[in-house]
Amino acid sequence: MISFELGVEDLADTRFALSPLTETVLSLRVLRDPGLSAVHLPWRRSVIGRLGTLDTDLLMSLVAERFTLPDFLTPRPEVFAPGFDEELAVVRRTPPDLVRRDLAVTHAPAPLPEPLRDAAATDDAPVVRLRDAVCDLLARYWEIAVRPMWPQMRLVLEADMTYRARQLAVGGARLLFAGMHPNLRWDDGVLHVDKMISSFRVAAAGRGLLLVPSVFAHKPAPPVVPEEPPTLVYPSRGVATLWTPAPVADETALVSLLGAPRARLLGLLGEPLPTVEIARRLRVTPSAVSQHLRVLYATGLVTRARDGRQVLYRRSSLGDTLTGAGHPRAAASAARPERT
């Protein structure tokens, strides 16, 4: 069990943060063991074939047999939403002694895996080379495995934080922690994290508590060593919907909603087009197109921008969602002219 003693000031200084680096590092657990979380199997299948020449031996060695991870790879975010490069820059500045300590504690009582053996060197130079190699590898891995999905992941995480903030406002710390995970227990000013491999008790002592929701965390993950500030990475709500493919737009339903002319016009606007060109492609009059564009613009389904003497229209993100963003059926429908 790991316990955090939180005073009144610590509760007042409890805050949330996002961490793209933490998500990247935690995803290595799922990459190593697909049985750890079935909900992430679609993500794993999409990533595993794209790792190419990455040093996967070094990547996987960062995850211990007990699925613990070195604390220095997940530094405490100092702002609400740091960028990945900002966080990785913090890791690159980690002192060699801290790298040694965290890697040893993470893998104890087992010896360090072969790719991490340089961390046992008494000379600092091999440890620094290893630290920098890990950072370079994580930067490449982030680009392949996590960054493409980060915008969607962030939406899920921010929705979770909104929900948790309401829980805190309605029921205080007890309700906040009660709903996060069965392994969390709030008792008389102390937050207990059960079923942990290590055991220690830390007084926050005015440092507050940082809460970091995570897509890839399968259980609460406090720091491995007691020297780190009180931080709790916890499983986010709504993860099950993250890897579910977006439903394909139903052309019939779209036509019923907008009418056939506007549905076809919206399907055509995957690229910026002027009114005259739209009219030519649909074989209708510019005045008819203008009437439909006014309605679509007023409802937020298209955007417009002036280019010289022309006004160019294009689907908005809402319009993309409604049409299935260029699904073949929509494109085919857009290509069929209709007189209006």
Automatic annotation (TrEMBL):
Pfam families, per this entry?
HTH_20 (PF12840)
InterPro entries from the UniProt entry: ArsR-like_HTH (IPR011991), HTH_ArsR_DNA-bd_dom (IPR001845), Metal_resp_trans_reg (IPR051011), WH-like_DNA-bd_sf (IPR036388), WH_DNA-bd_sf (IPR036390)
Keywords associated with the record: DNA-binding, Transcription, Transcription regulation
Domain of life of the native organism? Bacteria
Start and end residues of each HTH arsR-type domain? 242-340
Key word DNA-binding present? yes
Q: What is this protein called?
A: Transcriptional regulator
